Model the fold of this input.
Amino acid sequence: MSYPPNPPYPDTQMREWMQFAHELADLARPIARRYFRQPLVVENKADASPVTMADRQIEQAMRAAIAARFADHAVLGEEFGEQGDSALRWVLDPIDGTRSFICGVPLFGTLIALLDRGRPLLGIIDMPMLDERWAAGPGSPATWNGAAVRTSPCADLSSAKLFSTAPDLFAGEDARRIAQVESAVAVRRFGGDCYQYGLLASGQIDLVIEAGLQRYDVMALVPIIESAGGRICGWDGAPLSERFDGRVVAAANETLLAQTLARLA
Done:
């Protein structure tokens, strides 16, 4: 269920990319803080999702930094789409959880990933208002604020804590399918956007199930969850390729994932 290994890169190259990803997060954090709980003009995009000046300024700042440092790399961002054609692509979500952001809820984050030929190579979840950051790359443990983290040992749905961002992610057949999982778990909670995936990597919760997501919502999560010992995939059990259908399952371990996929099926 996990991703195939990425081609090997020199350790010096990996450290450079990882350090640069942290620099992007450091760049984004003060912009988010500047606009948080301040009067904002909120616009609705074509898909009815909200966007603010903060989303756009953060992505513009990160794109400018990438262009200055790695001009040959491609970029995909939520607000300004795709740019460039390269095997190496940065995937950016400047504010994952814009609805939380505009409501003054601090559970929004910035997602940064580097893909190699479509496969996630490294990822960062940064929580600007909470001073929390998860990060991971090939051959290194997932970290929270620099300390290594591991997913929980929970291996039975009856003991699992399940999170999703919102119940309205699921409609029709999706709602019926996830109800089969909800009826089996110990705890069911909503809210958190990308924060819930950090909690999963740190062993605080055991399972996240969502639908209706985009590439920029998930690619940064993959290295973090997998490096922490968890598993993340589509509802069909396949790795999250750039053509995934928006449905995601993240579990603390392979055993819990198998039980979840069986019920979703």
